[in-house]
Amino acid sequence: MAAEITNDTLAEDYALSQALYQRLLQYYEDQSAADRCHPFLVETLADYTDDSTQALHFYQEALAMSRKMSSDEPTQTILIGIGEPLLETGRREDAEAFLRDGRAEAVRRADSYGIEEADRLLQDGSVG
Question: CA 103, CA 76: separation in Å to the nearest integer?
Fold first, then answer.
């Protein structure tokens, strides 16, 4: 579903991408209600949430879930993801802390994309 949302957004079919987002949100709500939610699902929802405050909420939920699952659960993409809405809402100092932590984990996991993304965000404070 995430790939479909991305493809529809790139094709500027915002009505369809919004409908797919609503399906993803409903799936998340169903899984949460059944206590079967996984951090990857919550992070994916955050990735496609337009509202920075809501995205931050979902990323923080995903991070808490990941940390609860295992101390070795990968969290670099979540940490870097948290940095983006923090930057969008003007919380640069907080964003930098999450981005540095995400970058450090990306280095530890040899995640070159994560390293590049964290560096980009740290360097110029850009988002998206």
Answer: 7
Alpha helices in 2-91 (DSSP H): 2-10, 14-33, 39-47, 52-69, 76-88
Over the Cα atoms of the chain, what is R_g?
15
Q: Which amino acid is at 116?
A: E
**pLDDT tens digit string along 84-124?**
999 999 999 999 999 999 999 999 999 999 999 999 999 97
Torsion of CA 48, 43, 106, 122, to 10 degrees: 50
Cβ contact 116:97 at 8 Å: no
Query: What whole-number distance in Å separates Cα of residue 103 and Cα of residue 106?
Result: 5
Distance CA 71, CA 94 (A): 22
51 three-state secondary structure:
coil
Cβ atoms 55, 49 nearer than 8 A? yes
Q: Which residue type, as a one-letter code, is found at position 17? A: S
The pTM score is: 0.85
Flag whether pLDDT at 127 surpasses 80: no
The answer to whether the beta carbons of residues 106 and 69 sit under 8 Å apart is no
